[in-house]
Each structure stands twice: as structure tokens, then as C-alpha cells.
Amino acid sequence: MEHMKMWGTNLAFKLKYNDTFSITSSVRRVRTAPESTAGTPFVIMGGERITGDMNFHQRYKDLFWFSYRVGFKPVAGRITSDAGFGCLIRVAQSMLAETIKRHLGLNGAYDKHKERVRILSLFLDNELDHTISPFSLRRMCEIAHEICQLRPGEWFRGSTASLVLEEAVKRGLKDSSLSNFRIFAFIQGAIELHQLDRDMPHEKEEESKESNQKTETGALLMISTMLGLDEVNPDYYAPILDILALPQSVGILGGEGNKALYFFGFQGDRLLFLDPHYVQPALKGIEDLNDPRGLGTYEPHGSYSLEIRRMQTSVTLCFYVQNRADLDDLIARMRQLEEQHQDNWFLSLIEGPLDDLHGCDMEDFHPLD
Predict the structure, then answer these.
(1) Average pLDDT per block of 10 residues along the chain, 369 residues long
(2) Counting Cβ atoms within 10 Å, is residue 293 exposed (0-12), middle (13-18) or buried (19+)?
(3) How far apart are CA 284 and CA 5, in angstroms?
(4) pTM attached to this predicted model
(5) Minimal CA–CA distance to 75: which of 7, 3, 133?
């Protein structure tokens, strides 16, 4: 009965919001490699190269997929589902979960069930204690209202999500393993190096030798920018793929049309993405996460790819650096890409501060949902 109810909810959602991803020519399901890309490796954010459909789908199942939920405790006294407004929040959660997984060093052998539960508990829709779930949709809506005057139920931009997540971390995280985790939101298409130098200074060699404890700060960098006016500049196609292939990349928050998507890789010139436009029942709490059925609702299915020319022009590029040395490596790689692409490069590295422009007031960044 519950399954039929959710099927009906999703059908109604598709009709109401004209969600036609499965039949548009620009979007293709990644079941078997199409003839035009047969033998072409899949490149996952961070530069991981995968050959073969079976190997790709095995890796794909390890991603964190956040989708619309229905039936959670009311947000702002009235909202019990984010269907229709929360897709940018959901793709930001997918990206952040992947980033935290990398921050915790979960790339080799580990207890997958235990660690996925641990990470996903930070995002529970029904958890009212924000120290337990600091990145829940509920908490993100609360912070967005405080710092952006954005009412619950209104669309997020990529720049808004960046500022909200940055603020959530500043307010403190209960999980001690994230005590050395930072988020930096750059909302004008440029990385402000002076801010990184201030908050992630080079460690003195003698200090690092004296301490046996890990004091290095890992950081998520979120850079919001525009890739064109009405459509993506074709000259930017190659730089976009090169950015996704950087070792520090944790994907791109973007979209197609007015629908937000999480781009996590590419095959040939097609972008691979997670689509949040699917309604599922909200989990009651941590007990549902410990149930394989509940945990399984965060496992992606139906992988898709999109022609790069069809992506939304408003994007947020995301990078994770595990320490200062990794940050320096990212900056060096970006300078190399800037030299390689020259006038077709769209990111800036600046030494001084930019004008104080609040991300909530950036009218050029189109709302996505």
C-alpha cells in the first residue's frame, strides 16, 4: 500500500512539475555504453577513471543520493514535503555527504553500513536537534531564513546553499571527527586566496613534528559562477570536464532547465548526474537508517547522463582539500588550467578581498528547482 501511495505521489509530481527527464533527448539513461561512447571510460569527480558498465554501476551505488521526501515533521509549522522547492538543497546534501566521506578517509576497506549511517545521520529530516543533524533540510531552511530572509518553501540558489552550509559549520558540529572541517563559500566566481591564507595557514615544520595528533584542517571550497547568459559558452566545455577531473573535485551543483542536478562525473562529453526529483517517505529517525530498507533509500538508481550543452549556466563548483598542501596543489593545478585554456577559463584566483556582495542578493544566479 505504501509503495502504491508513493508511486501515485511521484506520478502526480511529474504531471504537476512537467518532470520529463526520462524522455528528453538531451538526457540518457546510463545502462549500457551508447555506440558513440563505447569503450570511453567514465570519469568520476576527483579523476577516478572506470572502464566498463558493470564497474561503473558498482561505483555508482556507493554514491549518496538525496531526493525529495514527504511526511516529515512540519517545517515552519506547515511544510511536510520539499517536493517542488527542495531539489537544490538535496543536490547540495549529496555533494556534502560525498565530501564528508572523503574527509573521513573512507576510500578503502571500511564498514559501509556503519559509516553510511554515521554520515547520513547528519542530514535526517525529522531530527529536531540540529547538533545531531546540522545539515538537515530543516536546519538549512532555518539558517537560510536567518541570513538570507529566505522563507521555508522558497527556492535556493547554489550561492545560497554555499552560504548556508558555511554558516552551519561555523555554528559548530557535535561529531568530533568533523571538528577540523571547514567550508568556504565564494560567490563571485573567484577564490579569495587571502581568506584561505588566513584560515588555512601553512603549518610551521617544527610544530607539526612536535605534535602526533592530526591538527590539519580539511576544507570544502564552493565557488558559484556563471557559464554564460542563456546557455553555456561552448568554449567552456573542455574546462568544465577538466575541473571535474581534478583530484580535489567533489562535483558540481547545477541543473538542466529549472531542475537542480548533482554532476559527479562524465563520459566523453556527457555529464553524469544524480537527480533528486523523486519523492520518498521521510525516515522517522536513526532507527530507520539502521534498517537496510531505510538506508537503501539513499542508494542511487537509474543513472543518467546529460549533454553538456544542456546544463544550466548557474553552477557551484565544489572542491575538497584535506590540508594546506592539498590546497596548494589545487591552486597550482588551477593556474595550469588557466594557462592552458587562457581566455576560455572562467575561474579567478585573487589575492585581495572582493566587494562585499551577499549571495542572497545575487539576481544573476537563477533559482533552480
Answers:
(1) 47 40 44 53 95 92 96 94 95 97 80 92 94 94 93 89 93 81 92 90 54 70 93 96 97 94 96 96 94 96 90 96 96 96 93 62 44
(2) exposed
(3) 18
(4) 0.87
(5) 133
